Amino acid sequence: MKKKIGIIGLLLLLVVFGTWAAAAGNLVDQRGVLSGKVLSDKLVSVGTAVREGDVLVRVATLTGAAPAVRANTDGIVREVLVTPGKNINSGDVLVRLETR
């Protein structure tokens, strides 16, 4: 009896882990290509549906406002990891998208 309960528990654990891994696998990091101070203009919000090429974050640069990151795939914004006024560097993960 204990062996059957152990096997059922193990199977349940595998199902839970598999579901978690599948959900986490759909998140795609969007990395900045410019350094600068994040502007509130064009800062995307969690839950927003975006298409490839949409501006997600703008920064202030020496030459003016510029897109720091554009969506590299269609999806839904699940995490915004920056706030207006924060200084970012090229290569930083700024947004995470759930792909469709």
What does this structure look like?
It is a single chain. The model has no long low-confidence stretch (mean pLDDT 88). This protein is elongated. It has 100 residues and is an alpha+beta fold. The longest helix has 24 residues, at 2-25. It is 24% helix and 39% strand. It has a single domain (28-99), classed as RNA polymerase II/Efflux pump adaptor protein, barrel-sandwich hybrid domain (OB fold (Dihydrolipoamide Acetyltransferase, E2P), Beta Barrel). It contains one helix and eight strands.
Helix-strand blueprint:
Blueprint: H1 2-25, E1 27-31, E2 36-38, E3 49-50, E4 55-61, E5 64-70, E6 75-80, E7 87-88, E8 93-99
In brief:
By secondary structure, this protein is of the alpha+beta class. Helices cover 24% and strands 39% of the residues.
The radius of gyration over CA amounts to 19 Å
What separation lies between the terminal Cα atoms? 43 Å
The total of beta strands comes to: 8
Specify the CATH homologous superfamily. Answer: RNA polymerase II/Efflux pump adaptor protein, barrel-sandwich hybrid domain
CATH architectural category:
Beta Barrel
Outline:
elongated
Instruction: Tell me the CATH topology.
Output: OB fold (Dihydrolipoamide Acetyltransferase, E2P)
- The stretches of 5 or more residues where confidence is low (pLDDT under 50) are none
Biggest beta sheet attributes:
4 strands, antiparallel
